[in-house]
Write a structure and sequence with these properties.
GO terms for molecular function: GTP binding; GTPase activity. By secondary structure, the protein is an alpha/beta fold. The chain is built from eight helices and eight strands. 31% of the residues lie in helices and 24% in strands.
Length: 223
């Protein structure tokens, strides 16, 4: 669910969107999120159990706006697969992550995209992300076949953002989230906000960005 709020007395414009990460276990979903949110990397990071919740914002100077992401990092283990619809059901964007050194993870990412096309909101923004570009010598998924897959989806009427990154080095991570932010309906959310429909209103139908997060929102774990 997308929401909007702007602190009183501020010229900044804010739009908030829910984003979910999907992908096979060990592709680096959590590492990508932590690089984006905290600019850290841990080689020994443990697998996510259920899902983890974090937030981070991206500034879009060309739109004079800031996009705040509510990020749900889902577990990749097969036993948690049935929980995924809980997280992408009302998502505005989804990152389907694969490991460029693992062909099976690329195939699994394509399965997630098929599932999103069938069950996720019709206007969800989907981004296919290849992680671990710092391991080029072990690459199994080349850019040509990724481009071919994207072209195939486009011919079927599906728009897809794609990119590669290294959570370890940080290369490409911010660019991916910025590209997603630019693809989201930022202006529509801001223009349709209760604040713009009724001057003086600071509370939207969802989360008020001018309000301190509740205890539940502040937690980084779920389920």
């Amino acid at each position: 669910m997308a929401t909007n709020s702007s602190p009183e007395g501020s010229n900044n414009r804010f739009a908030q969107f829910k984003l979910v990460l999907l992908g096979e276990s060990a592709v680096g979903k959590s590492s990508i999120v932590h690089r984006f949110v905290k600019n850290t990397f841990d080689d020994m990071r443990e697998s996510t159990i259920g899902a983890a919740f974090l937030t981070q914002s991206v500034k879009l100077p060309e739109k004079s706006a800031t996009v705040k992401f509510e990020i749900w990092d889902t577990a990749g283990q097969e036993r948690y697969k049935s929980l995924a619809p809980m997280y992408y059901r009302n998502a505005n964007a989804a990152l389907c992550v694969y490991d460029i050194t693992s062909r099976s993870s690329f195939n699994r990412a394509q399965e997630w995209i098929k599932e999103l096309k069938k069950q996720a909101p019709e206007n969800i923004t989907i981004c296919l992300v290849g992680n671990k570009t710092d391991m080029q010598e072990e690459r199994e998924v080349n850019q040509e076949e990724v481009d071919e897959y994207i072209t195939q989806l486009q011919n079927e009427g599906t728009t897809l953002i794609s990119g590669e990154c290294s959570a370890k080095s940080g290369d490409g991570v911010l660019e991916i989230f910025t590209n997603i932010a630019n693809a989201l309906p930022v202006e529509e959310v801001i223009n349709n906000s209760p604040r713009n429909r009724s001057l003086g209103s600071r509370r939207s139908a969802g989360v008020d960005l001018g309000r301190a997060p509740s205890q539940n929102q502040a937690n980084t774990g779920c389920c």
